[in-house]
Predict the structure.
Amino acid sequence: MARMFSSRGEAVDSRRDLEKQIEVTHGGIQDGRKLTFSDLCRIAEKDFYGPAVIRGGRKRSGVKSNATGSFIKTLEEYFGQRKLSTIRKADLQNYKVWRYDKGDLRFKDAADRRPVSDASINREMVVMRRLLKHAFNEGWVTKDVFAGAGIIDRELEEPRERVLSDEEEATLLAACSGTHEISYKWHREGVEEREVKADIDRDHPELIAIILLAVDSGMRRGEILKLGWQDMDCTRRVITVAASHTKTERERLVPLTDRTIDALKVLSGFENDAGRVFSVTYIQRAWNTTRRIAGLEDLQFRDLRRTSGTRMELIGIPHAIVQKILGHAAADITGRHYIAATPETVQMVADKINARSRT
């Protein structure tokens, strides 16, 4: 390592620092001084953020989620050619301000972009932390800039609390079948836009079963769509969610209700006990049409999972059991994101207290 200094004393002092850096990082600092953030991203994509490798039903390396790739792309847009050794805590704070200004990147047209959520920025910072932690462990940088920085602030996140009421649930399920009138905007270039109404016939028994599985069993959409008939135990009323299909890479058991069994009985393959339960792998279009017919366009599919967790708590299922059924590694995730105190659920609590006081 060669450096230029204006005086011998300054050179001697700096030599000690350089020798210490080499000793502490086992020589890694030599390579680190050449690496840019983009170089680190390529290394990460190859070493631990690559496509998931499944062996024996478990993920052995890589990631299953496509979201990580988009997070890396956004981080690289900002830090790109910055040398790793020059990234400081202040840069992380500046990045957060930049992200707020950029908005929600899922909307390609900047004019239509909504504000980005604190939860989204926190997820990007989690990826950034892992990247820089890897660089620190390899000796490419001499300091973990995230240590004690308080960059990831969970308190800023505003948990979504939308849950499905019993009446809304009935309306949603009814929208999966029968004849319904819908209105939509019709337009052609050069012709004035107008509203058109039309009747559509719907027959989606699979979607009914999917909705009931989400509401009664608390399963994620991906877990539901990957279910096999061999995972169902209608006698014990239990579903086994394979480890390779879960977010936490752990097998778990979830409840199978009578009404869900009835919905599954009408599907082909119920008696065969083999193969996939559902013939579809994509339901977003059918889901959007269903919630539009039901007048529930603000409802997201993940809200069904929150509805499930909230209902379990309200009927007295212990919180630890709800956590295991939903497949959360930490109890605070269940309480923060999947148990909602809406006016409807609080009213149910009041009714239960009243009923108990009258006995």
Remarks:
- The mean pLDDT is 82.
- The chain is about 45% helix and 10% strand.
- Residues 118-137 form the longest helix (20 residues).
